[in-house]
Specification:
- It holds the Pfam family Pkinase.
- Keywords: ATP-binding, Kinase, Nucleotide-binding, Serine/threonine-protein kinase, Transferase.
- InterPro entries: Kinase-like_dom_sf, Prot_kinase_dom.
- One of its GO terms (biological process) is smoothened signaling pathway.
- It catalyses: L-threonyl-[protein] + ATP = O-phospho-L-threonyl-[protein] + ADP + H(+); L-seryl-[protein] + ATP = O-phospho-L-seryl-[protein] + ADP + H(+).
- By secondary structure, this protein is of the alpha+beta class.
- It has 2 domains: 80 residues, Phosphorylase Kinase, domain 1, CATH 3.30.200; 122 residues, Orthogonal Bundle (Transferase(Phosphotransferase), domain 1).
- Helix content is 37%, strand content 16%.
- It is built from 9 helices and 8 strands.
- The strands form 2 sheets. Strands 1, 2, 3, 4, 5 and 6 form a 6-stranded antiparallel β-sheet that branches. A two-stranded antiparallel ribbon has the order 7-8.
- A hairpin with a 2-residue loop joins β7 and β8.
- α4 runs antiparallel to α5.
- The radius of gyration is 20 Å and the shape is globular.
- The N terminus and C terminus are likely disordered.
Amino acid sequence: MEVLAFAHARFQARVRVVVAARREGSFGRVYKARRKYSGQIVAMKCIPKIGKSEKELRSLRQEFEIMHNLHHPNIILMLDSFETKNEIIAVTDYAEGELYQILDDERIGEEQIKSIACQLISALFYLHSHRILHRDSIMYGARTYRGETLRSLGRFVVDLSLGCILYELYVGKPPFCTNSIFKLVKLITTDPVRWIPEMNPLFKDLLQGLLTKDPSRRLGWPELLRHPFVASGIVIVQDDDVYAVSAGIYAE
């Protein structure tokens, strides 16, 4: 166990006691911490400023500002953020474990996969309703998912990584597997996805829609919300200020 002392007054007032050893990530350090007065257990991400350009720091601050305004049960809640001389610090809800641990530990049942799919789709729809588009890369071991830049194609298009995650949850390995980003591009754009015979036809239809190589033909809104594999389990979270945007997506 490691206890830290920060000179920042806001930190001392809100999240002073660190109760667990840190984890190192590509972006910095993550601590399991306790909020000073409520006792709430939180995650504290400490991101060093050293080595980052002013543009990168502005982008990071903008990302945190966006996250402060997101309120969805399947999106980690940003509770606080502030800066010290050398670091930018984010305080968020604490989540025990990560999705890749499920992927590594065992194959899971279809109902659990459906539940995870519904939660992911609900969160994505909420983000897209806020006009938030994302680009992300996740690599660990031989597993690679690369989020695409979402483009305006007359409607919102869901990126390929959702299909990759759901495919691996069912099959036990990713549809495209390589440690090379250059080979990954070739696999995604040219190689056919291998399907297993025992896959539920409705689930296969969902994956085929998500893994279509042409983004303009990929399953998007509102079709994804209405797909029979997930339609009964998706919870739509609406904020007043995005109701009109979401209604427009439904109407297309």
